[in-house]
## 1
Amino acid sequence: MRRYNVTTFGCQMNAHDSERIKGMLEELGLGEAPRLEDADLIVFNTCTIREKAESRLAAHLGLAKALKDADPGRLLAVGGCFAEVQREHLFEQFPQVDFAFGPGSIAELGEWLKAERNGARGSFGSGGERRFAAELPFRRERPFQAWVQVSMGCNSVCSYCIVPTVRGKQISRPAEKVLAEVRALAADGVREITLLGQNVNSYGRDLPAAERVTFAELLRSCDRVDGVERIRFTSPHPKDFRSDLIAAMAECESVCEHAHLPAQSGSSRILKAMRRTYDRERFLSLAAEMRERIPDLALTTDLIVGFPGETGEDFEQTLSLVEQAAFDGAYTFVYSPRYDTEAASLPDQVPEEVKRERIERLIELVQSIAGERNRARIGSTEQVLVEGPSRTDETLLRGRTRRNTTVNFAGTAKAGELAEVRVENATSTTLRGAQVVSSPA
Ligand code: SF4
């Protein structure tokens, strides 16, 4: 067993977990095979948040079966949320799978591999006590950027969401462990950290009273760590966005001027059915307060269309929320019923053609507003963390502003460096520009 290949599906938490899976496998002496067909061990780190994620996985599992038929010595392990939710039927449904593990038991893949070398197959990790992937070694995608897990699981009960079922109740990592990791990362040359949690801003509530730290306090502590230039966090919940967090964002120099604030809908009636625990007015006043107190803030969101019972009027409310909040960007989704979620058995499921018509109108509006806001940056100079060559034009470089906008630009900076870029053009999702070469003093 010499080489592995990890395919990641889904969210940033899975991206983080995959870096840990790779770190663990490399500690066991395996090397990475860039291509699936060159791997002795194939690992799929899966997602089950929407139907689409599962159909993508099914295609990958089919390909893995063909590769295993061609080489029976090859192994296939499936982890993440789909594995967790399908724990009872996975091997029956996909007999090509040799080992499976949940998002809270990644370490068991390593233990199984050691055992496998002596011949054990077709088992699911015991799924015993959930353990933080953050305790495992890692192999980072980029040496200058890092995910830092601050909690796992979620205590919210959004009626459409399967996360609490697959990732369990919220457990926060002790603040000292998070800070120790941030200090080590900074010492290792990491310039940008992203604090990760399913509901990152409810961090700390479950910690023992003596150790309890709020997310705002944690953010301030991370801001005091030398060497960290930029701090981001995801994914927050509007109900937990309080004035102490807004103040920390406004006052901490390294905390970037970007907040991802999932609204999900603009209709208070639908928000109630989603069990989001805030209404339209509360969301809009929160967005206004954040824009007022955090200069130059970029606000992005998540929006679902076609939630059961959504009327034309409800959908119009979502459109008007987008206009009023003037988002800098949005992830838009068509409602997809999930196993054992409350919403899946609600009446008045919206017909597919109506969902499609609504998502098209929503995307059009989101893009027109985001385009307008990006065009307003033309002529400005942005600080960009260079990530590497542009994906669309090899003569250009690519990076991200503090407002989390992708910039493709002409320049000489290296990956991992901070560059000043003058914005010359914009689309609804990216900026284009040229590096401002500062003249030597
Ligand atoms: S806050 Fe709601 S949508 Fe987000 S992970 Fe928790 S239950 Fe799911």
Note: The first strand starts at residue 3 and ends at 8.
## 2
Amino acid sequence: MSQHDFTSRTIEFEALLKEFKILLKKNGEKFTIQREIILETLYNSDEHLTPEALHQLIQQKHPDLKTGIATIYRTLSRLEESDIVTSLSFGAQGKKYELGAKDHHDHMICIDCGEITEFVDDEIEKRQELIAKEFGFKIKDHSMQLYGLCKNCQE
Ligand SMILES: [Zn+2]
Ligand SMILES: [Zn+2]
């Protein structure tokens, strides 16, 4: 398994914000400072965040800003529709979100505590390309989630 810098962003925040504004306009929704903060917080986070964790982060950093959990849910699903963010579900407990523009990586997800570990394996990436080629298939994107128990939850 190779070490990758998952924190490097392939897109500038300004470009992302512009895309988000266009998306909101198309859907007849208002652009607000709360929504910008939601996007910014996701952009600057290296974690996979539940809506509740995101809410908490925003409240800590911007205590004066009234950002309801409903706004967070609504904004996240908007962002997800356009692939600005992607989500991972961890069983019945819910979903965690991350920025879609992060460098490609796959996930190991603990179905007990929800811990998420990112990894990239060059062999797996290469094998996928070869398999697709065998079938005359052109890969545009892929996601791989391994579900199981993390070290702590196995004890
Ligand atoms: Zn766990
Ligand atoms: Zn991830």
Note: The chain has five helices and five strands.
## 3
Amino acid sequence: MGKAGGMEQTPDPSADTDLATALVNLRDAVSAVTFELVHELQHDRVVARDRLAKDLASSAHRLEHLAAPLLVVIGGVTGAGKSTFVNTIVGRDLLATGPVRPTTFAPALVCHPADGEWFSGEEVLAGMPRLEATHHDLVGGRGDEGTLRLIRTAAIPPGLGLLDAPDIDSISAHNRELADQLLDAADLWLWFTTAGKYADEDSMQYLRRARRRRTALAVVLTQVHPVDLDEVAADFRAKLTAEELVEVRLFTIPATRIERGRLPAEAVAPLRDWLHSLSEPHLQRAHRRQTLDGALSAVPGDVDALIAAVEDDIRTADRLRGDVDGAFVDAHKQFDAALDEGLPLRSDVVARWDQFVGAGKLLKATEAATGQARAWIKGVLSNVGIGEERRLERQVRVEVADSLTGLLAQVADLAAADTVASWSASSAGRTLLVGRDVLARRRPDFDERAEEQVRQWQTHVTELVESVGASRRSQARVVSSVVSVAATSAILVALASAGITGAEAGIAAAAGAANQALLIRLLGEANLRTLVADARQHMLERFDALMDTERQRFYDLLDVVRPDPATLDSLREARDAFVATRNSRG
Ligand SMILES: Nc1nc2c(ncn2[C@@H]2O[C@H](COP(=O)(O)OP(=O)(O)OP(=O)(O)O)[C@@H](O)[C@H]2O)c(=O)[nH]1
Ligand SMILES: [Mg+2]
């Protein structure tokens, strides 16, 4: 960036450092990505992320060491004779070969002693434990799993490391992952396949990957009957061309007699000579550059794929959040409708109260809101039995509170069950529910919290009645003397509020006709409407507060698994910085 003109001719070494730095930053951004949502694609996404992170680190390292020895990875199908070939080149039985498939379980790297330090360093094939092999060991077979064997021998020219990789088509998944890792680290792929397997889809997938990454690639067709050699080679060439692998060098090794585990020298001569020529510094650099350029070209696409995967996970998490919201919006609607219909009220309770209000002299008493009336009411309440009135009132309030709490619990259970049902429809949702059966019901402390909310709400309604009563100058004193009764009546009316806010006669009955008549007389119709609307609104708010806590359980789970969008921002930023740095180098 900012480094223009003349760079094409003389690459500025500091520009490579810039690019390496951009790669390392990008690697950090890639490593910071998380895929915590468990679903069918999670494993692949994690693998792709880790692979990309490793790739970026390895590219940065190679960029800083363009003149380092070339890593030639010999990969391909099992039984193609990869290990046999290396033994032939070295002229010794170094590597395990044999008729049992697969034979090679661990990679072995053969290089000139002068390059030993480079290949034993931490940065090449980072994270892979390695062991120096003595010349007497037969390496790479069973028992070596998990380690890279390093063999130093003057039979290999300096500037070249030959890595014998486990196959890519065996049943061993471990072998495949290892092969992927090795091929990613390669400066050059030497792809071995046989006359019988060269068209296999497994092989083709790898060759396509090499093309995508523009990896320096040569293919070796082995065990071809000499008579068929031209025909098979031509067919393979056509297949390569169909895959747009046009300039790939193709070697053939005819089926021949194996002696002491090695191929005859002349069978491998062209391939050996070509490999030896690679150690020539300018060719070595050219191959490294080609592979590196290819790898770097693939970076933005790979990062974009990672970004898309993160976005997809975010969408999935948001969809699950939408499921929660949907269930809880429904719950709100259900509760709202229940208030319209007077569902929280038990008809026997309403009837008892209505009878008390209607049959008693209370209603009558309010007809003349005078001083005498007040005195009379007082008398009635004390004489007729204030104890009985209080008891009935308490009873009604407790029963209303119970059924209201019960309704709240029912709606909360329904919201939880609905959410769980929606989540169960997707694997990501199902995994979040595993071991969390409690989520299908309301929280254990819900009832306690609901009771408290209902109690506070009743207090609030009483306060509303008091304040409306106090503002009704003419009847203020009357109201204050029966405020408790009026509040109980208001609680009933508010819980069947369509009766007063709407005009449905049937529903009006739900809260008690005499009950409503009393309130209208005491408070005035307009006041009653406002009061009931206020009380209802207040109940809905308390309901929402209760449900927010219920809903939060689901949100908390999602918060853990939803990718942090900030990782996307840093990914994009690091990608753009990398692209800009790369473009600025022309
Ligand atoms: N007759 C004959 N046998 C061969 C030829 N090439 C390889 N073999 C034999 O095929 C078997 C497999 O060879 P390996 O070198 O172990 O094959 P590989 O590609 O390393 O196989 P994996 O390690 O399983 O991936 C060995 O028994 C070899 O001796 C050949 O051209 N002719
Ligand atoms: Mg082998």
Note: The chain is about 65% helix and 10% strand.
## 4
Amino acid sequence: MHYKGVLTKMKTENGSPIQYYLVFKNDFLHVNQLLDKQLTIQFAGYECLNCGLDKEIYRQGFCKNCFFDIPQAADWIMKPELSKAHLGIEDRDLAYEQKVQLTPHIVYLANSSNVKVGVTRKTQVPTRWIDQGAHEAIEILEVPNRYLAGVAEVALKNHVGDKTNWRTMLKNEIKDENLVTWRDTLKQYIPEEAMPYFLENNTETHLDFPVLKYPKKLKSLNLKKTPQYTGVLKGVKGQYLIFEDDTVFNVRSNEGFVVEIAVS
Ligand SMILES: [Zn+2]
């Protein structure tokens, strides 16, 4: 079977195990059904996720012009504490910023390679955790806007990590942590303005990734350097495809790349 389309991050459905889908315009692949099959991935150009042009992708699936222009790629996306829609202040497009920022947000602890703090819109739970490859996570605050979530995250970052070590995550060299204990320990560092939104009774969510064999060493597939790759799929974790020869492919960091995929 042959498929062609522009890569976007895989859609997921939580379950045992999690179900992954690669969605193209006219087609989709149920990635779980490709386990143990041989895939050939061929680089076939670019298609910016905003303007649709065949221009080199700069970041987050966008060409350079779009990345520095559109509201979906503004700084407050990666740094929620820079959000200003709650003050009525525009960054790039106030209507868009109000729609995205002035909705319930979750501050969570997730364990992907180590315990880290993160922020996501409430509608993105547990999608966000799946995308990060976290095997366990817990919601610790539910706040009414992105700014408050960002302020709490910044305060907690001084006492817990905020990054995933993707190598550790993919090799599955992980530890079970008691996130309830972590939450109770970190509570004292939550800023006063966010405290009314503390969630004291939540329990851990555990996530089950479809991986038959974890890699020992890691070789990251870069389609710019290696425009064609063939390998047997052995798993999916986070937004990574894991192959039998220890090659891993980060679908998310290749958003906007047009690929042909052959399955045999
Ligand atoms: Zn563009």
Note: The first helix runs from residue 64 to 67.
